[in-house]
Amino acid sequence: MKLKKAIQLGSRLNPTNINDYASVEVEDLINQIPKDAITQYVLSMIQPIIVYDRENEGELLKTLETYLFSRGRIEDAARALFVHRNTVKFRLSRIEDLLGVDLKSRDIAFKLQFSIKAAKLLLHD
Predict the structure, then answer these.
(1) PucR C-terminal helix-turn-helix domain location, by residue (predicted)?
(2) Residue 113 above 50 pLDDT?
(3) Residue 49 in contact with residue 63, Cβ under 8 Å?
(4) Residue span of the structural domain in which 53 resides
């Protein structure tokens, strides 16, 4: 069963990689949550960023995802995004203002990472 889920989720999310269940375990959990509930949660967490990016051709969501993936290291995020670290700092400040959160909070970082993963799954459905 786990192998089947790994193949199904992996082929949807990252078709060029070979995935084991551990690499898609969180996504599997997200898939078990009713779609309406997960959509509502994602929107409650990151909708202001999505709207801002759409209206301003921005890259706040990409910046946030990269920053979180870089474990909060601005230099690493800047390198991955091919921008100056001050650009990342400015964007993160804008994100904090839009969401009304402190990105240094581990709890907030977890919720945002979860929301971004869930949003990607919703888009792949």
Answers:
(1) 60-118
(2) yes
(3) no
(4) 33-124
Number of domain units in the chain: 2
As to burial, measured by CB atoms within 10 angstroms (0-12 exposed, 13-18 middle, 19+ buried), residue 118 is: buried
Who's near 77: CB < 8 A, 6+ residues apart?
Answer: 63, 66, 67, 69, 70, 88
Return mean pLDDT, the chain: 85
Contact 13, 121 (CB under 8 A): yes
pLDDT in tens, 62-76: 999 999 999 999 999
Residue type, 98: L
| pLDDT of the residue at 3 | 43
Radius of gyration for the alpha carbons in the chain, expressed in angstroms and rounded: 15
* Domain harbouring 66, CATH code: 1.10.10.2840
Nearest-10 crossing angle of helices 35-56, 60-69: 120
Per-residue pLDDT at 16? 57
Same domain, 81 and 41: yes
